[in-house]
Specification:
Helix content is 74%, strand content 0%. It is mostly helical and 108 residues long.
């Protein structure tokens, strides 16, 4: 039963396609085809433009949120670096030893 319905649906589609093809072939002028294409373009242009606008708004919002998060993380990292490299409240008790054992006498 289902296969019969599928076969009938396919036959209907083929018949509709043949009718459309013969109508286009019968028209000697391209005016009808051009008018059909303009109407098709008009019917699909509005949803296409609205979809593009909606996608642009959503993507711009996502980019803005991402940039805000990057800015927050960068500010936090800079604050941590400033705190790590900041001047100590009390000076050290003694000088730190030189890296090599052959320091100049003026620095010893």
């Amino acid at each position: 039963m289902i296969t019969l319905q599928i076969i009938l649906a396919v036959m209907f589609c083929v018949a509709a396609f043949e009718i459309c093809r013969s109508e286009i072939a019968k028209s000697k002028s391209a005016f009808r085809t051009a008018r059909y294409l303009v109407a098709l373009l008009w019917h699909w242009s509005i949803p296409f433009v609205l979809g593009c606008l909606a996608a642009s708004v959503v993507s711009l919002m996502g980019i803005q949120q991402g940039l805000m998060q990057v800015t927050d993380v960068l500010d936090e990292a800079i604050q941590q670096a400033v705190q790590a490299c900041g001047v100590a409240d009390q000076p050290p008790d003694s000088r730190s030893p030189s890296e090599s054992g052959t320091a100049s006498p003026s620095r010893a």
